[in-house]
Design a protein that fits this description.
The complex is a heterodimer of chains A (about 280) and B (about 190).
Chain A lengths: L5 H13 L4 H13 L1 H17 L9 H14 L7 H15 L4 H28 L1 H30 L4 H11 L7 H13 L3 H10 L7 H13 L3 H13 L6 H8 L6 H15 L1
Helix pairs in contact in A: 1-2, 1-3, 2-3, 6-7, 7-8, 7-9, 8-10, 9-10, 9-11, 10-12, 11-12, 11-13, 12-14, 13-14
Chain B lengths: L8 H9 L5 H21 L2 H17 L10 H23 L2 H10 L5 H4 L4 H12 L2 H12 L4 H8 L3 H32 L1
Helix pairs in contact in B: 1-2, 2-3, 2-8, 3-4, 7-10, 8-10, 9-10
The chains are: A mainly alpha (about 280), B mainly alpha (about 190).
Chain lengths: ~280, ~190
């Protein structure tokens, strides 16, 4: 082997540092360095720095990282059959996660509870004093208050989804999934999140949350549009899954457009091809 | 008594992709330190390096079904790690003006907490010289020198020939060497003056 240029020698020097050089190439490099003072000086100086890099201490992760991981794995573990104790614990846990950290929301919910309590108390008094007709009136009031509580939950979810912090927005998305039904305003905000949130995790969580309303043609259409706009392979894959799970044959065109795009990750393109096949069957 | 899991990372990941999530714990045990060090060498700060490490494992779980029998686990893992880092950089650039960030790294006279643990002055300066490199050059040195990837693997990861990777690593080393020598001479001038 003969070295024809210093550029070629540089490749071999880099190989030498990594121990990737065979005997023949090492001899050729040696010959070149004997005749080229500039390369010889670089080999000596940079080789020494390469060696010295190995003396840099290895940083260690904190124990908090492992704790966070163990918590994640715990949350993914299948739940055991609930005992009565477990049921009550789960109820407490549910309540803790439901309760917002923002004191303003806490006060609002506490106020609503008070109103519900007063309403209930007044209702009971009326029942004693005014009879069956009054009972119906009270039922209407309680129903109205329930509606208010639901709309307060919606407000909390919407407010969280508009926070600066990605963690808060994630909570907002999570919160929206806990409502018995999803109001149009929440659906619109989740679609907006899928399309425009700067954080991939928040977008992924919003896609999951929208599974509840996958029956809506309008939502599926928005997801198709989002698919063509995404640049994250993770989000693209999740959107493809969403549309396949929803058996949305109208999405074939949008998914197929990814297959031919060279800027799309090869794994996503392969996933898109599978999805097109599944939906075309 | 603990048992040693002799499955390769690839075998474990294939099992995870098929729904056996328990295999992720073994993968985490084997890989989380290397990933943390990868991010730490790129970012230079503990908390974000830990956040990004955690994020890689979350994405591995979420996208386990994209792992295919023909994939090499290490390449797949670093592909995810690079995406996580790219997202972090994009967000960070939006939040912090780049010039300000660079100045803090190169011109600040104070050693970082990590640097202050280094007994040898030269090592602290070398760490600073590495930190002063642009992200893409630093990444090549980190992958080749610290993460133990071959030039062939790095080439597949960054999408170029291994020969091109070698030349780029050489240039990155040269740039880092220059910065290192400049820092060292500035440092010795400062010591003499005081």
């Amino acid at each position: 082997m003969t070295i024809h240029s210093c550029e070629q020698a540089k490749e071999l020097m880099a190989s030498q540092w990594m121990g990737e050089l065979d005997g023949q190439s090492a001899a050729a490099l040696h010959l070149h360095l004997e005749s080229c003072a500039e390369c010889a000086a670089e080999m000596e100086s940079l080789g020494a720095i390469w060696e010295k890099l190995g003396d840099l201490p290895a940083p260690e992760p904190s124990l908090a990282l492992r704790a966070r991981w163990e918590q994640t794995m715990q949350s993914l573990a299948p739940a055991p059959a609930p005992s009565s104790w477990a049921r009550s614990w789960r109820a407490t846990s549910w309540w803790q996660s439901f309760w917002p950290s923002n004191p303003a929301w806490q006060m609002a919910i506490a106020g609503l509870c008070l109103v519900v309590g007063l309403g209930g108390g007044l209702g009971a008094g009326s029942w004693l004093q005014r009879g069956a007709m009054e009972q119906n009136l009270q039922r209407d009031e309680v129903a109205k208050l329930r509606e208010e509580v639901t709309s307060t939950k919606e407000l909390v979810a919407l407010s969280l989804m508009q926070q600066q912090s990605a963690a808060e927005r994630l909570r907002g998305v999570d919160y929206s999934t806990r409502m018995p039904s999803m109001e149009p305003q929440i659906v619109a905000e989740l679609i907006h999140t899928v399309k425009a949130d700067p954080n991939v995790n928040v977008r992924l969580a919003a896609i999951d949350a929208l599974t509840k309303v996958a029956g809506s043609a309008q939502v599926r259409e928005s997801m198709q549009t989002a698919l063509t706009q995404q640049d994250s392979p993770m989000v693209q894959a999740a959107l493809i899954d969403y549309l396949v799970d929803a058996r949305d044959r109208n999405a074939v065109g949008s998914i197929r457009s990814l297959v031919s795009r060279t800027d799309v990750n090869p794994a996503v393109r392969a996933h898109a091809t599978d999805a097109v096949n599944q939906l075309s069957q | 008594m603990s048992t040693v899991n002799q499955n390769t990372d690839h075998e474990l990941m294939v099992a995870v992709a098929r729904g056996n999530l328990a295999g992720m714990s073994e993968i985490y045990d084997r890989r989380h330190k290397a990933l943390f060090r990868f991010f730490f060498r790129l970012i230079g700060r503990q908390a974000p390096a830990e956040d990004l490490t955690h994020e890689v494992f979350l994405r591995m779980i979420r996208y386990r079904h994209t792992y295919q029998a023909g994939d090499m686990f290490e390449s797949w893992m670093y592909r995810i790690a690079r995406n996580v880092f790219a997202d972090h950089t994009k967000k960070h650039r939006l939040e912090t003006p780049a010039a300000e960030g660079q100045m803090e790294l190169v011109e600040s006279g104070r050693p970082s907490p990590f640097e202050s643990t280094m007994k040898q002055q030269d090592l602290a300066l070398l760490h600073r010289a590495l930190r002063a490199l642009p992200d893409e050059k630093r990444e090549l040195i980190v992958l080749s020198r610290f993460q133990g990837l071959t030039y062939e693997q790095i080439g597949r990861l960054v999408g170029c020939e291994s020969g091109t990777v070698k030349v780029r690593v050489f240039r990155a080393m040269k740039e880092m060497g220059q910065t290192f020598h400049e820092l060292r001479s500035a440092n010795s001038t400062g010591e003499k003056a005081s």
